[in-house]
Automatic annotation (TrEMBL):
InterPro entries: Dimeric_a/b-barrel (IPR011008), NIPSNAP (IPR012577), NipSnap_domain (IPR051557). It holds the Pfam family NIPSNAP. This is NIPSNAP domain-containing protein. Belongs to the NipSnap family. GO terms for cellular component: mitochondrion. Residues 36-134, 145-244 form the NIPSNAP domain. One of its GO terms (biological process) is mitophagy. SUPFAM superfamilies: Dimeric alpha+beta barrel.
Length: 246
């Protein structure tokens, strides 16, 4: 009697296109290499005026090497502090700029050697513009700027990006402040995002703040985003006379 083995069906794997794609990143990929370095310097209280005067006179030695976006003196949210933003096309460009500064005798003798003793601390953070934001000019020179910083929960923009965008853009409307740029951190505290705003004055900013509390559209957007928020802080700043962004 002949015995037959059961037939074995060999199934070909489904086409690669039909396989589900797993997203491993927690945020959109950067489409460009341009980044913005945020710098915060804390100044000795008795040297604040002298530091600003020296920087006003010698900032051209620094801007000869790379682009300065803006330079502000912090009025509320930090005492005796300055905040500035520098633009770089790549990390290699920044490395070249730092190397050139280290070899620039005028920069070292006329500025750095005098400025460093006036400071108590320095901090920096590397940021990118979020994909839906572009760096904007304020409607006019003058006014005040607010840097609002948000420490979001771990997970990245894939978790909280849409809610953050909705909360920020709800304020970027007629009758509110002007959004200059929205940024997310690359080096420094992670899952941190920043919104840089322009207002006509500190009083106008206060009026806008109260208006937002009664705007159902804004309130709903903010409520949806705060569930992803760990902490936040802000600083109200005045542009220095030599700041490109005034």
């Amino acid at each position: 009697m002949l015995k037959f083995r059961p037939a074995v069906l060999l199934l070909k794997p489904a086409a690669a296109a039909a396989q589900p794609r797993v997203r491993l990143s927690s945020c959109p990929q950067q489409e460009h290499t341009t980044f913005y370095e945020f710098r915060t310097y804390s100044i000795r209280p008795d040297q604040n005026a002298a530091f600003l005067k020296l920087t006003n006179e010698k900032i051209h030695l620094r801007t000869a090497h790379s682009e300065l976006i803006g330079y502000w003196s912090v009025e509320y949210g930090g005492l005796n502090q300055v905040f500035h933003i520098w633009k770089y096309d790549s990390f290699s460009q920044r490395a070249a700029v730092r190397a050139a500064l280290a070899q620039d005798p005028s920069w070292i003798s006329e500025y750095i050697s005098k400025a460093i003793p006036m400071l108590t601390s320095q901090d920096n953070e590397v940021t990118y513009l979020v994909p839906w934001s572009r760096l904007q000019k304020p409607p006019r020179d003058g006014g005040v700027y607010e840097l609002a910083s948000f420490q979001m929960r771990a997970g990245g923009p894939v978790v909280w990006g849409d809610a953050f965008q909705a909360a920020i853009t709800s304020h970027d409307a007629p009758g509110y402040g002007k959004l200059v740029g929205a940024f997310h951190s690359e080096f420094g505290p992670l899952n941190r995002v920043h919104a840089l705003w322009w207002f006509e004055s500190a009083d106008q900013r206060a009026e806008v703040r109260h208006k937002a509390h009664t705007d159902a559209r804004v309130v709903a957007a903010v409520r949806n985003s705060v569930v992803h928020l760990d902490s936040q802080r802000n600083r109200l700043m005045f542009p220095c006379p030599f700041s490109p962004m005034k």
